[in-house]
Automatic annotation (TrEMBL):
Record SUPFAM superfamilies: PRTase-like
PANTHER family: DNA UTILIZATION PROTEIN YHGH
Species of the source: Clostridium tanneri
InterPro entries (alphabetical): ComF/GntX_DNA_util-trans, PRTase-like, PRTase_dom
Similarity field: Belongs to the ComF/GntX family.
Protein name, entry field: ComF family protein
Length: 226
């Protein structure tokens, strides 16, 4: 009888230990054991082609500073696809951590963080907005409010498969600033998963500026060629 109680206590104690020490100790991409901090092993991190330089997204004499963590290939492409299509939020957290480090390194200052909105139809289909998830994780970590400034007013065609100019035309007048929200004099960080021509991010940043924002900085997980 005593033995049973001991076994029971032992079981409960193991449960307690499991709760205390249960961390995800496998690489988010390849699954191999990790011995230390982070979400990714060195082999997988080496498959990310980091993109160190800031660049400008420019149209008709207006331009915005943009930072991308890496090129849209290898490890980063896998992370983005896992977040976007497999609801893998650990992949999302991995990406957001790179973004947070970049904000700190570049000393990017902002009052609030926002994201590229999805149409209601797309949101219903996916269930979440991956860019909003990244923006929220960044805001939480850096103590900045996440504000949904923008809405998508036109259900545009998917940008995939369109040429550079077609992309610019496709997103024209697709986004607007939500009426009641005051953006006046705000310095805003605009987050997206992948930037290609920059047409979408530009369109959103431009709308925010037209409604009185002071400054917009664009930050994306990856940068892709058309
Ligand atoms: Zn790995």
């Amino acid at each position: 009888m005593g033995n049973g109680i001991v076994k029971n206590l032992r079981f409960l104690w193991d449960c307690v230990l499991q709760v205390i020490y249960s961390t995800d100790e496998n690489c988010v991409l390849c699954g191999q054991d990790l011995f230390g901090e982070g979400f990714m092993c060195n082999d997988c991190e080496e498959r990310i082609r980091f993109c160190e330089d800031a660049f400008q997204v420019e149209r008709h004499g207006t331009s915005f500073n943009c930072y991308s963590i890496s090129y849209y290939s290898g490890g980063m492409m896998e992370l983005v696809l896992m977040l976007k299509y497999k609801s893998n939020f650990r992949a999302g957290e991995t990406i957001a951590n790179y973004m947070i480090k970049r904000i700190e390194k570049e000393k990017i200052e902002f009052d609030a963080v926002t994201y590229i909105p999805m149409s209601k139809k797309s949101l219903k289909k996916r269930g979440y907005n991956q860019s909003k998830y990244l923006a929220k994780t960044i805001g939480d970590a850096l103590n900045k409010p996440l504000v949904s400034y923008l809405c998508k007013i036109k259900d545009t065609k998917d940008q995939i498969g369109l040429s550079g100019n077609e992309r610019w035309n496709n997103v024209q007048e697709s986004f607007d600033v939500i009426d009641k929200i005051n953006v006046k004099n705000k310095n805003i960080l605009l987050v997206d998963d992948v930037i290609t021509t920059g047409a979408t991010a530009f369109s959103c940043a431009d709308q925010l500026m037209k409604k009185g924002a002071k400054k917009i900085t664009i930050l994306t997980a990856a940068k892709s060629k058309v």
